[in-house]
Design goal:
- The chain has one helix and 33 strands.
- Helix content is 6%, strand content 39%.
Length: 318
């Protein structure tokens, strides 16, 4: 063989090998079609693996496809349980009806999971392992109004999650007893919130309230929050039951107790305000350093607090 021809062939072989191991670029959106019974992505139960053609390239009249790493995953249509068999990389995950994902590992760090399209009454469970770095943004479903809207839809992360970088919730409500990944992850509420449905969870993570505010719902339960609550927005507590805060409030965060009973036993070191606009706000024997403590329609209970320049006023309630 001519030496120059041999070198040329070797070069092509090396280039082909390099291409086969190169990082996958972001692909297009793939639409789940677990039933594969029509030309449309109808959803449904099924198994997500490396080779089965359970994805469509379009929501309507697309081509059948196996999963392509780096794609956006969209689950719509008929809800069902999807068994993830293997480990897959996602650019984003969108779920618009009451699916359950179980098994396997989904690497989605630094990306967004969106379930807001599922509406306020759907329950969505992601029990697969969520991995990666850079945090995860959750644009969840569920009602964040003062009354909770009388419905109980939410997103729950139930896998043995390992992702790092924190969680940001921008809409809807995420179940309080979800697995929020690495122990160091903080929870930022910036338009969305958390819900304790029935567990009376002791929640140890630090919570940050963004400028769009956040909400914590309780369904007749009594969760306890031991971490620091900080940020610049307003945290609203809604629905029923009792919420207990033993950690400190810092930064310029405000608290609006809109329903039932809220107990604060940590130090209030925030320059923001503590409101009682409904229900009862109990301030119990800790430092309130320069805060505005305002009763605007609920009941404000003070128990041997150290005011330390706190301004206390009432425009309604008791």
């Amino acid at each position: 063989m001519n030496p120059s021809t041999s070198r040329f062939a070797l070069r092509n072989l090396l280039l082909a090998a390099a291409a086969s191991i190169a990082p996958l670029a972001h692909s297009a959106t793939l639409f789940w079609d677990g039933t594969s019974s029509t030309a449309n992505a109808d959803g449904g139960a099924g198994t997500w693996d490396v080779s089965t053609l359970v994805w469509d390239t379009l929501a309507t009249a697309g081509s059948d496809s196996a999963w392509v790493n780096g794609s956006d995953a969209s689950f719509a249509g008929t809800a069902g349980t999807v068994t993830v068999s293997g480990s897959f990389a996602l650019n984003s995950l969108s779920i618009s009806s009451g699916y359950t994902l179980t098994g396997g590992t989904l690497t989605i760090g630094g990306k967004t999971i969106t379930t807001s399209g599922a509406g306020n009454s759907a329950d969505i469970f992601i029990n697969s392992v969520l991995a990666g770095t850079g945090g995860i943004t959750l644009a969840a479903n569920g009602d964040t109004s003062a009354s909770g809207g009388g419905v109980g839809g939410s997103l729950k992360l139930g896998g043995a999650n390992t992702f790092t970088g924190g969680v940001t919730i921008t809409s809807g409500v995420v179940n309080l007893d979800s697995n929020f990944g690495d122990a160091s992850n903080t929870i930022t509420l910036n338009g969305g919130g958390l819900v304790d449905e029935s567990t009376s969870t002791t929640f140890t993570r630090n919570i940050i309230i963004g400028s769009s505010g956040g909400v914590i719902r309780t369904w007749g339960t009594a969760p306890t929050f031991t971490g620091t609550v900080s940020g610049t927005g307003t945290l609203r507590r809604t629905d029923y039951g009792t919420q207990n805060y033993t950690g400190n409030f810092t930064g310029s965060v405000s608290l609006n107790s809109q329903a039932q009973t809220t107990n604060l036993t940590g130090n209030w070191l925030s320059s923001g305000s503590a409101f009682a606009s409904g229900g009862t706000l109990n301030l119990r024997g800790q430092v309130y350093d320069g805060a505005a403590i305002v009763n605007t329609g609920g009941a404000l209970m003070l128990s041997s607090i150290n005011r330390n320049n706190a301004a206390i006023s009432a425009t309604g309630g008791s």
